[in-house]
């Protein structure tokens, strides 16, 4: 039930006191932005759809995604890039001799029979295309084709989203300069549109440019204003005030700029009742519908994974495919265009404090109420204001371009995949670029790695040989020790299988950290509110120092006794706060291991310290103390109590056959080691990777970098003592 209806989970866990204010502000902001976007959609999609039809379709789609969708901050609605792909579809039955498709406004008499017949025919083509797109997405979700997104690394997703952001910025130029051009579809259409903008640039409207710059400056200043509510950061809803303010001014003062009023005057109907699509058109639009389904589906999945990674939860790609398929099937009855995740509105909902899908419900309700009761009030809103809001919110997706040099030094294969995905999406279009990205990712992943082969090793009796327990019936295991051997490279594809295998063998389950626990990982001065105030607002125009990297976002608990699995969380703090000379006592010797976290400006080492007794030898093999001995001195396992030791106290990961670990695999390995350390389980990693410069967490000490080959030459009683 929770898989099919994800809303049941967040409804039962909803924090009314902590999340309600942020969800309300985010919903109102998204609803106000969605109103002018719905009015100007006809200009970008080059199809005059009645505005109330778009409003009702968007409201129904938002409700459907709230029930069936898995991303908490997703805003569903029309997206012009997907709608722009309808240009080829509209050529099947051009409306008004294709004047709007060619980029010119020509208003004919509504009483002409040919005008209304052509208009209704073009709407039928759009509705049928949307219906077939939704059916294809439903089939993809039912067949489980969402797993394809699992094989796309983060570099491919960020490259595709960066290309989408460039397309968004290019489309908004028609609002910024107040000019109309003829949009193209297909390969190198991006550059055709740039040439058309350059040709029409002498006709630019100076008022529109001035309004755009005003909005951009206001939103840039807004980034310096910080608001927190119950320790949750909320951005000041500047978009809300900009839309309301400029709408009021435009209704009082006549501005020489482009508005949505021109488009509204060309639409012969304000609302058309829902009808079934024209199925006779299906053979003509199969290829276009398939292309639309791929682009809209993967855009939704990529955006959902990007947002979910920022909030420490996971999304179900197959469930999202089913949800967006239902949204498009329902919207087709309203003769609306294809719906997907709206990037700009999703970013606004996220940064405005939206925590759950309740914000989407509020936004959909506000949008529908305003369109039905006060739609004419927003007809005079300058399009340049909306363009400034959209561009300011999608620019952060272009920051990955500046990270290309560091990505090249980190992983050349990922960098090559990023450039291939980005260039193919720009030159060949979003649909062909997506196919090239998927094929390239599959090829690189197949060449570099395959499914990890992980063996559980045991000792052959009366020998010092360790082999897989599945190969020998008389093999024995050392009590409290699990030895795993990984026989392949560790990548983003198989690292989660490794974690699942480890948890299964030690009878533990993973539990995501609560937000309060994540806040507690940092210094209390960073999160505690001053003076006991619930809300506080301050201005900081300087660049804030980025927070230290959280090395893990979940804890491992024993299935039988969860309370005894974790004692204290590993504390993350800034490098300056870790002064060993001021806190160490004379009878203790610090052991430090550095963990490197990259920043945009460079690299900085964060040192984590584990205190060992002064009489412990660093050159000898580490021994696990008994319970009686641990009362007089600390255990080797950091931040733990020896009285709470689990049944499995040591895990050995034999990585001697691992010749490659990618960036994502390294991050997950660090999370696994920290989570096991938090659960009082020691991790030993014998591997040549440690000598190659891969830095692992602080509890993997230099004396613990053992080799199973050297261990096999020791007597069994010596092995027992070491373990």
TrEMBL record:
Question: Could you tell me the keywords of this UniProt record?
Answer: Membrane, Transmembrane, Transmembrane helix
* Occurrences of domain STAS (ranges): 471-685
Start and end residues of each stretch annotated as Disordered? 589-629
Q: Which SUPFAM superfamilies match?
A: SpoIIaa-like (SSF52091)
Cite the PROSITE patterns for this sequence. Answer: STAS (PS50801)
What's one GO BP annotation on this UniProt entry? transmembrane transport
The lineage's top-level taxon is Eukaryota
**Cellular component GO terms, alphabetical:** membrane
Regarding the membrane, this protein is recorded as: Multi-pass membrane protein
Transmembrane segments in this chain: where? 56-87, 123-148, 160-182, 194-219, 240-257, 285-303, 323-348, 354-372, 379-398, 418-444
Q: What is its main location?
A: membrane
Q: Where in or outside the cell?
A: Membrane
Annotated Gene3D superfamilies: STAS domain
Q: Which regions are flagged for Polar residues bias?
A: 589-604, 613-622
Similarity field: Belongs to the SLC26A/SulP transporter (TC 2.A.53) family.
- Which PANTHER family does the entry mention? SULFATE TRANSPORTER
Q: What is this protein called?
A: Solute carrier family 26 member 8
């Amino acid at each position: 039930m929770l898989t099919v209806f994800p809303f049941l989970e967040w409804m039962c866990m909803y924090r009314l006191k902590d999340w309600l204010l942020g969800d309300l502000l985010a919903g109102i902001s998204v609803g106000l932005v969605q109103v002018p976007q719905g009015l100007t959609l006809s200009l970008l999609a080059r199809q005059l759809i009645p505005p109330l039809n778009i409003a009702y379709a968007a409201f129904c789609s938002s409700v459907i995604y709230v029930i069936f969708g898995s991303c908490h901050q997703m805003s569903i609605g029309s997206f012009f890039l997907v709608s722009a792909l309808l240009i080829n579809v509209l050529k099947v039955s051009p409306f008004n001799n294709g004047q709007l498709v060619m980029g010119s406004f020509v208003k004919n008499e509504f009483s002409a029979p040919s005008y209304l017949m052509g208009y209704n025919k073009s709407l039928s083509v759009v509705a049928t295309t949307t219906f077939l797109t939704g059916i294809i997405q439903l089939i993809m979700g039912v067949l489980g084709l969402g797993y394809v997104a699992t094989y796309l690394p983060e570099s491919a997703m960020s490259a595709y989203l960066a290309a989408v952001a460039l397309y968004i910025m290019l489309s908004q130029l028609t609002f910024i300069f107040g000019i109309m051009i003829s949009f193209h579809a297909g390969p190198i259409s991006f550059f055709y549109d740039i040439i058309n903008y350059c040709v029409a640039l002498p006709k630019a409207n100076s008022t529109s440019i001035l309004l755009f710059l005003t909005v951009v400056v206001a939103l840039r200043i807004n980034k310096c204003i910080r608001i927190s509510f119950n320790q949750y950061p909320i951005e000041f809803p500047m978009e809300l005030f900009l839309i309301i303010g400029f709408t009021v001014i435009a209704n009082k003062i006549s501005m020489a700029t482009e508005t949505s009023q021109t488009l509204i005057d060309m639409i012969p109907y304000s609302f058309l009742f829902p009808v079934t699509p024209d199925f006779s058109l299906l053979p003509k639009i199969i290829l276009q519908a398939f292309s639309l389904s791929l682009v809209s589906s993967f855009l939704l999945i990529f955006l959902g994974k990007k947002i979910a990674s920022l909030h420490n939860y996971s999304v179900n790609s197959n469930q999202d495919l089913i949800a967006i398929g239902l949204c498009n099937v329902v919207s087709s009855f309203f003769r609306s265009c294809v719906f997907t995740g709206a990037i700009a509105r999703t970013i606004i909902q996220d940064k405005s404090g939206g925590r759950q899908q309740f914000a989407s419900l509020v936004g959909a309700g506000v949008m529908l109420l305003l369109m039905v009761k006060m739609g004419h009030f927003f007809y005079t809103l300058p399009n340049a204001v909306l363009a400034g809001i959209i561009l300011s919110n999608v620019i952060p997706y272009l920051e990955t371009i500046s990270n290309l040099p560091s990505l090249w030094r980190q992983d050349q294969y990922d960098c090559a995949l990023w450039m291939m995905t980005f260039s193919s999406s720009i030159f060949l279009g979003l649909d062909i670029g997506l196919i090239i990205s998927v094929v390239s990712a599959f090829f690189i992943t197949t060449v570099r790695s395959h499914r990890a082969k992980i063996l559980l090793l045991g000792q052959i009796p009366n020998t010092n040989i360790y082999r897989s327990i599945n190969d020998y019936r008389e093999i024995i295991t050392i009590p409290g020790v699990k030895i795993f051997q990984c026989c392949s490279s560790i990548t983003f594809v198989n690292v989660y299988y490794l974690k699942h295998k480890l948890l299964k063998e030690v009878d533990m389950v993973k539990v995501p950290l609560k937000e309060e626990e994540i806040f507690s990982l940092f210094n209390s001065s960073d999160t505690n509110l001053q003076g006991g105030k619930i809300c506080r607002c301050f201005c900081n125009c300087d660049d804030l120092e980025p927070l230290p990297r959280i090395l893990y976002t979940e804890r491992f608990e024993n299935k039988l006794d969860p309370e005894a699995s974790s004692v204290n969380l590993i504390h993350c703090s800034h490098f300056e706060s870790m002064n060993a000379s001021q806190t160490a006592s004379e009878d203790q010797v610090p052991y430090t291991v550095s963990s490197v976290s990259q920043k945009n400006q460079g690299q900085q080492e964060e040192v984590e310290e584990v205190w060992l007794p002064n009489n412990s030898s660093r050159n000898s093999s580490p021994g696990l103390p008994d319970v009686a001995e641990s009362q007089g001195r600390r255990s080797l396992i950091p931040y733990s109590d020896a009285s709470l030791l689990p049944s499995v106290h040591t895990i050995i990961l034999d990585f001697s056959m691992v010749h490659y670990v990618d960036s994502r695999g390294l991050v997950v390995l660090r999370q696994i080691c920290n989570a096991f350390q938090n659960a009082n389980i020691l991790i030993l990693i014998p591997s040549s990777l440690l000598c190659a410069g891969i830095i692992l967490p602080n509890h993997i000490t230099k004396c613990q970098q053992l080799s199973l080959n050297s261990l096999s030459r020791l007597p069994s009683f010596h092995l027992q003592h070491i373990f």
